């Protein structure tokens, strides 16, 4: 289908990728007495087979950790910090370098908790929420220009998840519903989003090198129809973000990815085929797999066409599947 009009600039840029090397160090089977047990041997064998199947489908350690525990019922927790620029990492301001809508342009720290119910080894339901703390290094005050609360509940969500492996291609497909509770975004009219995404990865045999991509489509719902609000609201969007990962050891990898094509349609636009393409940014990060269900990832993001320390952002995230 031909686009009638577009704001997308020509794709003429040269990827600048700096190679970064770093060296970081960072079931039981219960059997009750035969007289009272209702657990049969075949149940244990089926559970073990299911657990093994999951790890055969997803061999990428980050994807394993992100997809949740192998147990039928499980709980996961996450911690994250989105700091300032590389030049001023502890600053309150966090540059919106991609110029995307619905972004809080201040440093924050957050914690999350989610529950997972495995329908089968490859199908699961997840639900979770979190707490967000704006500018945690600035005491009780909130930064100038910020319209929300210092601490708030951070956007509960529900997910249907399906994982598969096709000819070595590992994939996690998710249908996700988000409900906005972040106070600054509520004041901007945000209500909910619904999206479908697939995260894919292919390990080149014998190389330690993984090629992958994340693709998504999403729609948004809002309750503020003022021109000011519509200018920062995307009613539907598409995205494609490729990445490359190199596995140094079983516990350490280097990952770099780019938001190559992120196309939000703004509600302020009357043309359904006019998109406000986000700036192309690059991420470089380390992945530290402390255990199967514990993954830590520090990283930095920057603009490919304008690499500057004051136009970059730092982040740190950790996820732990409890059981």
Short description:
By secondary structure, the protein is mainly beta.
- Strand order in the largest sheet: 1-2-3-5-6-7-8-9-10-12-13-14
Query: How would you characterize the largest beta sheet?
Result: 12 strands, antiparallel, barrel
- Integer average pLDDT: 85
Question: Number of DSSP strands?
Answer: 14
Q: Report the helical percentage.
A: 10-25%
Global Rg: 21 Å
Instruction: Point out poorly predicted stretches.
Output: 1-49
Note the gap between the termini.
Answer: 48 Å
Structural class of the helix and strand makeup? mainly beta
Count of helix runs: 4
What's the overall geometry? globular
- H/E series: HHEEEEEEHEEHEEEEEE
Strand residues, percent: 35-45%
Provide a descriptive summary of the structure in words:
With 323 residues, the chain is mostly beta strands. The protein is built from 4 helices and 14 strands. Strands 1-2-3-5-6-7-8-9-10-12-13-14 form a 12-stranded antiparallel β-barrel. Strand 7 (190-203) and strand 8 form a beta hairpin. It starts with 40 loop residues before the first helix and ends with a strand.
Give me the secondary-structure topology:
Elements: H1 41-57, H2 61-67, E1 73-82, E2 108-118, E3 123-134, E4 151-153, E5 157-166, E6 169-179, H3 183-187, E7 190-203, E8 209-222, H4 227-230, E9 234-247, E10 252-258, E11 261-266, E12 281-291, E13 294-303, E14 312-321
Antiparallel strand pairs: 1-2, 1-14, 2-3, 3-4, 3-5, 5-6, 6-7, 7-8, 8-9, 9-10, 9-11, 10-12, 12-13, 13-14
């Amino acid at each position: 289908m031909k686009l009638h009009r577009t704001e997308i600039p020509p794709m003429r840029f040269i990827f600048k990728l700096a190679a970064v090397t770093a060296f970081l160090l960072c079931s039981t089977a219960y059997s009750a007495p035969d007289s009272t047990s209702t657990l049969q041997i075949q149940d244990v064998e089926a559970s073990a087979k299911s657990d093994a199947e999951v790890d055969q489908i997803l061999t990428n350690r980050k994807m394993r950790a992100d997809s949740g525990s192998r147990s039928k019922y499980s709980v996961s927790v996450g911690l994250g910090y989105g700091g300032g620029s590389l030049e001023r990492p502890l600053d309150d301001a966090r540059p919106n370098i991609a110029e995307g809508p619905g972004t809080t342009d201040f440093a924050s720290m957050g914690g999350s908790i989610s529950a997972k119910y495995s329908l089968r080894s490859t199908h699961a339901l997840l639900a979770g929420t979190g707490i967000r703390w704006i500018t945690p290094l600035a005491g009780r005050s909130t930064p100038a220009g910020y319209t929300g609360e210092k601490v708030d509940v951070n956007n509960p969500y529900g997910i249907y998840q399906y994982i598969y492996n096709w000819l070595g291609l590992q994939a996690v497909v998710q249908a996700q519903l988000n409900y906005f509770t972040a106070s600054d975004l509520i004041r901007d009219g945000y209500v909910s989003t619904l999206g479908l995404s697939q995260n894919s990865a292919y390990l080149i045999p014998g190389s330690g090198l993984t090629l992958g991509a994340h693709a998504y489509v999403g729609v948004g719902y809002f309750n503020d129809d003022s021109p000011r609000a519509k200018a920062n609201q995307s009613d539907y969007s598409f995205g494609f973000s490729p990445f490359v990962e190199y596995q140094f050891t079983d516990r350490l990898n280097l990952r770099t990815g780019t938001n190559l094509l992120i196309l939000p349609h703004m509600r302020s636009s009357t043309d359904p085929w006019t998109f406000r393409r986000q700036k192309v940014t690059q991420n470089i990060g380390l992945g530290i797999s402390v255990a199967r269900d514990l993954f830590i990832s520090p990283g930095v993001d920057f603009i490919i066409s304008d690499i500057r320390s004051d136009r970059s952002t730092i982040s740190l995230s950790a996820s732990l599947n409890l059981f």
